[in-house]
Amino acid sequence: MHCRTDFLLERDFQELKENNFKGITAFPVSEDLMEWGADIEGLQNTFWHGLFFQLKINFTSQYNFVPPVVKFLTIPFHPNVDPNTGRACIDILDDPDKWNTSYTLSSVLLTLQVMLSNPVLENPVNLEAAQMLIKDESLYKQEVRRLLNQPTQLRNNSPEFPKDPDKLIRSTKAISFNDYYKTWSGIATSKATEYYRSPLLEDPNFVVEYYKWKKAELKHPKEWNLK
């Protein structure tokens, strides 16, 4: 019934399998590929590295003219994640004008991975997290870890892990951080505050560029750390 959508999701599935992005695991949990589960880990050499978050991703027959609906099941204490619903609030998911049909599931997951350590403090959906981060970053870090030890998780909506190992997409490969940062941060959020902004945030045209980077080592400059 949804031949075009099926083709695109199979393409996205293949892209994930071929690239094995570091810190990202994703898998379809329904036979029609409309519902996916995913796990992301924060970027290396950032506060979020070593922290893992489970997500649920729902597509419609209108994909990729419209973005998928993405929710964190393990809800991080983060300015850009709704603390009640787990909804990830980023431009490419919220603003139809910012979504592009060249974006894929890989685009979405990599953007969310970058979002964790690159919060947008303008119009945050979790005001408490944003205020704490601005006022006392050390306290904010403590609160993030405390809440992860007692996670706010939408357990009833947690996708069942697929029995077929071919449906599991594991992450083993790294890419150049400078290019990663330049490309994915440009689409990760609406406008980074000046405190978190870098000249590398200028180029959002990541799709063509990505395949030039995938064999490089992952290295991170200091400005990525939430000190």
TrEMBL record:
Question: What keywords are annotated for this sequence in UniProt?
Answer: ATP-binding, Nucleotide-binding, Transferase, Ubl conjugation, Ubl conjugation pathway
The protein's superkingdom reads Eukaryota
The question of whether Transferase is a record keyword is answered with yes
> Where in the numbering of this chain does the UBC core domain appear?
4-153
As one GO molecular function, the record gives: ATP binding
Record flagged with keyword RNA-binding: no
Task: Show the PANTHER family listed in the entry.
Answer: UBIQUITIN-CONJUGATING ENZYME E2 (PTHR24067)
Function recorded in the entry? Catalyzes the covalent attachment of ubiquitin to other proteins.
The protein, known as? Ubiquitin-conjugating enzyme E2 U
Please give the organism.
Leptonychotes weddellii (Weddell seal)
